[in-house]
Backbone:
């Protein structure tokens, strides 16, 4: 199964990176740092033609298993990860992109979270699970790594 780990964090070499890197090695997966890409927030007018999202998402669609990795920021993923997830709506709204989105129905997803808590809070995982199951993806794994301090 061709796998990619997409991670986001304010610290590109911190705890989330360490956990994402270890998971990528375990799964023989590609690892990308989402914060290196220019991804605008969702816009009803789809006015972000100059950012990296569409090409990046098309590349991600080439993988069978997509692992989303983020530290827990106030019960949520990082702002860049949230923008990435929100922008998937572009593929629902723009007629020419809709056929590409249907490829998600054959994909698996997993969640990797990191925090100074013993487990990821329910709102964090529920948002991701609810979104990706709505898109037809199959949950494969949820993993949380506890660090005594956040990065």
Residues:
């Amino acid at each position: 199964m061709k796998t990619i780990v997409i991670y986001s964090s304010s610290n590109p070499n911190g705890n989330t990176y360490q956990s994402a890197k270890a998971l990528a090695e375990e799964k023989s997966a590609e690892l990308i740092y989402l914060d290196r890409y220019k991804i605008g927030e969702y816009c009803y007018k789809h006015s972000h033609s100059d950012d990296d999202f569409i090409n990046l998402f098309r590349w991600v669609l080439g993988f069978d298993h997509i692992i989303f990795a983020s530290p827990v920021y106030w019960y949520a993923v990082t702002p860049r990860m949230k923008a990435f997830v929100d922008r998937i709506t572009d593929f629902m709204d723009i007629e020419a992109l809709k056929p590409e989105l249907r490829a998600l129905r054959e994909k698996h997803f997993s969640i990797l979270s990191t925090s100074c808590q013993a487990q990821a809070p329910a709102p964090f995982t529920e948002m991701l699970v609810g979104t990706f199951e709505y898109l037809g993806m199959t949950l494969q794994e949820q993993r949380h790594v506890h660090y005594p301090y956040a990065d």
User: Anything to note?
Assistant: The chain has a mean pLDDT of 95.
